[in-house]
Amino acid sequence: MSAGFVITVDGPAASGKGTIAGGLGRRYGLPVLDSGLLYRAVGVLLQRAGGDLDDEAAAARTAAALTAAQLADPEFRTRGAGEAASRVAVHPKVREVLLALQRDFAAQPGGAVLDGRDMGTVICPQAPAKLYVTAKPEVRAERRWRQLTGQGEAVSLDEVLADIRRRDERDAGRSAAPMRPAPDAVLLDTSEMTIDQAADAARRIVEAARAG
Ligand code: CDP
Question: Total structural domains in the chain?
């Protein structure tokens, strides 16, 4: 991989982008940024401090105080954290605070893989390889339901599907960095794919971008 190669992997909740980003990172020896974890951390830490998710200034202060050491908390992987993340992610000031950190990550000399909603549109629009990973809502709900119940959360498949639809709508409908494919992103629908098939397809997209 040539120096400074950046791969962006965007898409809606539970589309498989995290797995794909991780696979690409291992394949090309690149560090992977899970940008959703930053928003999850801001949401959970704000709630833990008794703050209001709709309070933009308080959420921005929480984002500004975030440290790398705080990011390992397993609570950030819960169902409630996903919802809290999407609520603080609508605030332009929160996104602004987290912007430099994400751009710095992308600017590492060897390059990086960036996983999120606005990696290809806002954080790194000049990235040479951009993927937009999707899957049908029902398929995504089932994947997320398996993950959450595997973590010990008691939740029904219908509840997870409702969560995903609500979050997609909020993420795509917000005015600050809405979730959408960059104009030059390659769409990858993983609805009918196994993890291995999706990883292979992603690799082929990146190889084509490197060659072109
Ligand atoms: O794993 P999942 O796809 O469910 O979520 P995530 O990638 O951890 O992101 C959680 C939430 O953070 C999303 O629903 C978005 O509202 C927000 N987010 C964002 O606004 N911008 C990003 N670059 C990444 C996440």
Answer: 1
